[in-house]
Specification:
Length: 233
């Protein structure tokens, strides 16, 4: 059983994935961390599968394009580590921040969430004004609708103990980008200890997020989360 499973959801990431895998492998080697790398191909139409064919990498394939939430959940189910981290394929949050996350888990945290909005965080390359403003508005609605006391729910760098991951991802229903909020809502509902950690963050111009389409869907998913709770799900 490795100490850490590093899960990378990937959709049409043939260009960015090789460099990301190289950086992750170098970090594992230099830090002497017992870890496995899992790439979850979300029904890519390019050569993502070929790009993921590197030593020490396990590939999980979705039969079709299902969404980031579905892919992260699939990676969590396949993971064998004691600590399960998912990170974006562009490494917007550098993999070096895994080390303080591991320490937080050793100190008792069930879930550790990367944050761009708490003291000590550094946004090295910011998003454009529209996306940054939209993110702040979305987080305000997250707090109003779900009551989650999390400053930044959408940073794609989060780690779970094995037990926490099993509890949360056996209940997650959202396949798209709103899954982060649902996962944290479930964790809070079950009394899991969530810790936010400041990170460095670099916006990638090649993001797969469609601002209008995905923002509209994510707002709707906030109400789905509360409705699922009322249904006892």
């Amino acid at each position: 059983m490795p100490q850490v499973s590093i899960i990378i959801p990937a959709y049409n990431e043939e260009n960015r994935l090789p460099a990301t895998i190289k950086r992750v492998r170098k970090f594992i080697s230099s830090g002497r961390i017992s870890a496995e790398i899992i790439v979850v191909d979300d029904g890519s139409s390019d050569n993502t599968v070929k790009a993921a064919a590197a030593p020490g990498v396990r590939l999980v394939k979705n039969r079709a394009n299902r969404g980031k939430g579905f892919s992260v959940a699939a990676g969590m189910r396949a993971a064998r580590g004691k600590i399960l981290l998912f990170t974006d394929a562009d490494l917007s949050t550098p993999i070096k921040f895994l080390k303080p996350f591991i320490k937080s888990h050793k100190d008792g945290a069930d879930i550790v969430v990367a944050s761009r909005d708490i003291k000590g965080a550094k946004v090295k390359v910011p998003q454009n004004f529209l996306r940054e403003t939209g993110g702040k508005i979305f987080n305000l609605f997250v707090r109003l609708i779900t009551g989650l006391p999390i400053h930044d729910t959408q940073c794609g760098f989060k780690s779970f103990t094995r037990e926490a991951a099993k509890s949360v991802f056996s209940r997650v229903t959202i396949d798209g980008f709103g899954f982060d909020v649902e996962a944290l809502y479930i964790a809070k509902k079950h009394g899991l200890k969530i810790e936010e950690k400041p990170v460095e963050w670099f916006n990638s111009p090649a993001t797969k997020v469609n601002f209008l389409r995905d923002s509209t869907r994510m707002f709707a998913e906030l109400f789905k989360i509360r409705l699922n709770d009322l249904k006892g799900m």
